[in-house]
Design goal:
This protein is mainly alpha-helical. It is 53% helix and 7% strand. It has a three-stranded antiparallel beta sheet with strand order 2-4-5.
Length: 344
């Protein structure tokens, strides 16, 4: 017996399924597992999920016909996007529930977005000129067994965090100018003897952004050194940059992997039940991503505090308002950010 082809699923893996029931088995699988809850994923994430699933299936180890994969490509091209609930994935068993909502639209069921409307899946497919498929043996399992939901979410989050790291360097440059920062802290001499790639990149970014500034100062001109939130920005931002590079590497591996079960090795004439659907290789990098992004936010809050604090902000208006008392400026905005930082 082969899991998912001639057997049931999970606890029913020892239950034999006849060839006559193979198609019914696959459709029943999709319907029973499409039990996600919560708000739907945004359309960009849902489309990313579809794209990653196409890529994984195209590796050729999943036991699915090319026309099923081509139908998903057609959905992407025509703008038919399955409604996929955010909650329901167990991680350890892959993304069975959310991917089932994707698969439902392929067979003309479920719901989908099309031209700005949320429609029954079959109606959306018809309007887009696409014909749903009838699933053959193994194809239902091939469509839903994998890590493409968590990987899609992680990939877009990692991209956003990388953009955030760039913006964080920009805010350091602006804050340094506002506070007459000491430019020496960003000199390559310091960073070349502790050559973490991310640290050197952030230092170079800040140095380039402040080049020629008449507000930046030299060491000893106004003070010997700045507070950590300015002086240590390359080290803190750089550590997050290096972490994000590691996370991106793991995501790239996962994006280009076969992550379902069982896997079919045609040349070796073998079908192997394994655990490539397990989400741990993505879960740990995602924990690291949360910490890395939080560190960018934490040091940013400390710079905001210096900007609004009249004892530290180099004679800028208290809380950055010209009408102190009548207006509170950024007083409570900074409190809110600080409270969030402490709470986390």
């Amino acid at each position: 017996m082969v899991y998912g082809l001639t057997t049931g699923f999970g606890k029913f893996s020892d239950t034999y399924i006849s060839a006559e029931d193979a198609k019914t088995l696959q459709l029943n699988l999709i319907r029973s597992h499409a039990c996600g809850i919560g708000e739907p994923f945004p359309i960009d994430i849902a489309r990313a999920i579809m794209l990653l699933r196409v890529n994984a299936l195209s590796l050729g180890y999943s036991g699915i016909r090319p026309e099923v994969v081509q139908l998903m490509v057609g959905m992407l091209n025509q703008g038919v996007t399955p409604v996929i609930p955010e909650k329901g994935s167990l991680g350890a068993s892959g993304d069975l529930a959310p991917l089932s909502h994707l698969a439902l639209v392929l067979v003309g069921e479920g719901e989908a977005y099309y031209q700005g409307n949320r429609l029954p899946g079959g109606q959306a497919m018809k309007l887009a000129g696409l014909v749903p498929v009838a699933l053959e043996a193994k194809e239902g399992l091939a469509l839903i067994n994998g890590t493409q939901v968590m990987t899609a979410v992680g990939t877009l989050a990692c991209r956003d965090a990388m953009n955030l790291a760039n913006w964080a360097d920009c805010t350091v440059a602006l804050t340094s100018e506002a506070l007459f920062g000491v430019r020496d802290a960003f000199d390559a001499l310091t960073h070349n003897i502790r050559p973490h790639k991310g640290q050197r990149q952030s230092a170079e970014n800040i140095k380039r952004l402040t080049a020629g500034s008449k507000l930046m100062t030299n060491q000893g001109e106004r003070r010997v050194q700045d507070a950590y939130s300015l002086r240590c920005a390359p080290q803190v931002h750089g550590a997050s940059r290096d972490a994000l590079a590691y996370i991106a590497e793991k995501l790239e591996i996962e994006i280009n992997s076969a992550t379902d079960n069982p896997l079919i090795f045609v040349d070796e004439e073998r079908v192997i039940s394994g655990g490539n659907f397990h989400g741990r290789p993505i879960a740990l990098p995602m924990d690291h991503l949360s910490v890395s992004a939080s560190e960018l936010a934490n040091i940013s809050e400390r710079r905001i505090e210096r900007l609004v604090n009249p004892h530290l902000n180099e004679n800028l208006p208290a809380f950055l308002t010209r009408n102190g008392g009548l207006e509170s400026g950024f007083m409570i905005a900074q409190y809110a950010v600080c409270g969030r930082r402490i709470g986390e």
